[in-house]
Amino acid sequence: MYYxxxxxxxxRKDLCSLQGERLKRLASYVYERIxxxxxxxxxxxxxxxxxxxxxDITRLPxxxxxxxxxxxPFEMFAVPNAEVVRIHASSGTTGNATVVGYTSQDLxxxxxxxxxxxxxxxxxxxxxxxVAYGYGLFTGGLGAHQGGEALGCTVIPLSSGNTRRQIQLMxxxxxxxxxxxxxxxxxxxxxxxxxxxxPAKDFKVSAAILGAEPCSEGMRRExxxxxxxxxxxIYGLSEVMGPxxxxxxxxxxxxxxxxxxxxxxxxxxxxxxxxxxxxxxxAVFTTLTKQASPLIxxxxxxxxxxxxxxxxxxxTFRRIDRIAGRTDDMLIIRGVNVFPSQIEEVITQFTDxxxxxxxxxxxxxxxxxxxxxxxxxxxxxxxxxxRLEALKKEISRELKSNxxxxxxxxxxxxxxxxxxxxxxxxxxxxREGRQG
Length: 436
Ligand code: DLL
Prior knowledge:
The protein has twelve helices and 21 strands. It is an alpha/beta fold.
């Protein structure tokens, strides 16, 4: 049930004092070792000696992605290169990549975090873990891999892609835990069915640990049904660690944050003031144990909230809600704020369409135009114009009643929307001056 019970079920009081101690140590550590933080602390008028406990965290300055970009490649490292044993980095499509280093202790802690969640998902040393997250600079593949090895599982390092082989080996090796993005899990399940497998009967997968992109409850239900496995949402980001910062236990009621390694805060993205537990805002993380790339109050741009109360599983780590979206992915449609995951929640209620969708943004004169493209399931009579029109009307009506805004809907033929092997591209931005 637990991987490190003495930590995972620690009394809150002890956990908070552990966090306070670690925060104090971290404040001195970054001040001494990273010029960026020395300057930021001085600028905010705070000295490491001012940090006496957990409650002093709000005195510390925030860190944003641009700070990491400006420090490219290694200026934010707190240890000499001789102590760095691995590097991961973001893709850097919209600027300098953000580069993160790991010492061997950092890797061990990361593996432990992931291993905890493998156990929370029902895994053990007997598990056969199929890793279909990409390996490489992206943290998904290696993060899941080292977590599986730490627990003593049999790890199949397939990486993403090569879907036929994924299906074949899932069957032949009797994988029981699948790790990949939700959109890829759905693609694997659908492709397996097309190849004549009944995943619920022919595969042994009992749990899927899926993350790296938002996944609505409707999408989760669809994957669970098509794969015949329980879906556990896992959260992480390369700047902070990678997958395993937070994950759902068997209760599926929010994601436990590994609070011995991270402090989570939720702040109002406009005022940057902390919001009350239960209120939505931007997640901010402080790394408590990282040696190579520690971060103070990193603004993630991910929208979530703290779930109040204790979890039935017995873990005492606080839970965050499933990520609703990123502040930079939020669409403003005719003045109404909409996250793609809210659109997904509506369309996954329709059995005549698949959970594959894309939101196309174009400009028409000074106005932005938003079109939602969805595709029908394979056996829908696509040439029956009246049924198609009726379906389109119904989807539009549901969107309007759930999101309070009219969205243009276009229904396309099965298999038109590109399938993803990693993070799905839900928004295609064709507006002038932007890249698709
Ligand atoms: O996506 C790390 C990861 C790999 C997490 C595998 C989970 C599983 P990045 O590529 O740096 O790292 O992207 C981080 O992805 O800020 C969120 O916007 C999004 N994200 C990650 N996990 C989730 C999730 C990895 N469970 C960014 N739900 C984050 C929603 C997620 N969004």
